[in-house]
Predict the structure.
Amino acid sequence: MRTDIVIMAGGVGSRLYPLSTPEHPKQFIDLLGVGKTMIQLTAQRCLSAVPDAGIWVVTSASYVHFVKEQLPFVPDDQILSEPVARNTAPCIAYACRKIGKKYPDSNILVTPADAYVPDCSAFAATVREALDFTAVSSAIVCIGIKPDAPCTQYGYIQGSGTIVNGQSIVKVERFKEKPDIETAKKYLELGGFYWNAGIFVWNVSTVQNELRLHAPQIAERMDELEPSMYTDAESEALERIFPQCDKISIDYAVMEKSANVYMVPGNWEWSDLGSFESIEKITGKKLH
């Protein structure tokens, strides 16, 4: 089964201003001082899991030049340019519909461009377990990060505790919003709660069916757009149709509504690098 990787790289990284700016956001910066930008590290990490996967990047029209400079191996028609930002549900819907038009049997990994995951081999093992499951099921698999401290910066996933496949995949009970500190402490004490890393795995038919069921407005816009995909008319159609999509995250649009969501725990270090403090903790250097 073919695997495709969708890297979401359209954010402006506003919480890290002025280090990250709308003109040059954090995913295109070497935040950690390692000689590679965050999107380069993400692509490297994903290809360590599936070396022959297709790489697709969804980004703002104004950031396409960064993608071409930093990931020159990605084909131009796999760099998808959003005319406006509409949050993650339309972004994912567009990428997965375009993949599905050419590769209808593809298995897909969706990931943000700017996460910190130093252990590529552990990440690869987790991703491969999820891909193996979605290759033979209609499941959505999200990756949950085992919390090591009460944290109010992340949303949480509550697992059922019942292993349904292999070593560790469990049914998701529910998604939880970012909690206050007392609730976060309670989650840690209870166990079974994981940080939501915003990394998802599914196959083409699953994501299209789930979007059609739970986010029909977005699915209908993709129906309008699909005939133009891979033609000279795509750019004009995208400019006209994409801004009509509901502005909503994939979590609200699908994850919180679907009955087919599962989780595999990622027992490895992770951060969304969403604050100066989180970067300073990793690098040991003061940034502000």
